[in-house]
Amino acid sequence: MRLAWAQASSRRQPCLIEIAVTASHRTTLCQIPPAIWMLGFVSLLMDLSSEIIHSLLPIFMVTALGASAFDVGLIEGFAEATALMVKVFSGAFSDYLGKRKWLAVLGYALGAVSKPFFALAPGVGTVLAARLTDRIGKGIRGAPRDALVADIAPPHLRGAAFGLRQSLDTVGAFLGPLSAIGLMYLWANNFRAVFWVAVIPGILSVLLLMLGVREPHTHVDAKRTNPIKWANLVRLGRSYWQVVAIGALFMLARFSEAFLVLRAQQVGLPLYLAPLVLVAMNVVYSLSAYPFGKLSDSVREHEIRWMREHGN
């Protein structure tokens, strides 16, 4: 009888564990730490600032500065490539330091500092310098900011935390073009006046990060080594490089949103309405980021439960 009861108890245990795990891991927005919300609003403000400018910049370069579509593509290509290359080293550097916040602050500060130069630009050269500064800032802040999210969020909420931050980021990305439309209409297509407005949320994002987010305590090895080594790259594992390869393939099919804005003007959309194409794109992105982040937590939970029940 005792053996039969023990066997019955062991058979019931996975079900009890499953119920407990499901109840404890039920994700709501209220469970996400306040610091994640702060990081989300930091991203929102910086993207609001950036997109006010970027949604108008291609047309500004072509109509006000005399640039060609080729020039626009060249500047955008250099800028985005710079951001991606810097991001690799900033992630490794933040791991080496064991500190994320102030590296992220530096990146956001560079983004904020670049904004006035768009309004002051007398030619394409100044725009190129400002874009490179802005994208270097983006490259610096991206990896440590994401590492901050991972450090702050509880393990079972990481997918939702990343999704929330990305959703708020994208809210800024569609509010930016929307604001640009209203301001261009209000100020009779005065590009430079609109660009000056974009300086304000950029500064606010830096202040919010400095004052509203604390550096979480993380373990740092006493003996630090250069993280960018072949041995460390190999240790990342096959699955990691498979994800990188898939991302690279997707990026090959990507083209700059600047061409969408130029195309909108070519098909006859009024100048001040050209940023609408970015509004539509970013609304879809914003609405999908959090649900899919939450879904990733759910998928991970089911994988863990399956491994626990079938691992022995």
Automatic annotation (TrEMBL):
Pfam families in UniProt: MFS_1
An example Gene Ontology molecular-function term: transmembrane transporter activity
Residue intervals passing through the bilayer: 168-187, 193-213, 233-252, 272-292
Signal sequence region: none
Cited PROSITE patterns: MFS
Alphabetically ordered keywords of this record: Membrane, Plasmid, Transmembrane, Transmembrane helix
CDD domains for the chain: MFS_MJ1317_like (cd17370)
Start and end residues of each Major facilitator superfamily (MFS) profile domain: 35-312
Name of the protein in question: Major facilitator superfamily (MFS) profile domain-containing protein
Organism per entry: Cupriavidus metallidurans (strain ATCC 43123 / DSM 2839 / NBRC 102507 / CH34) (Ralstonia metallidurans)
Gene designation: RMe0312
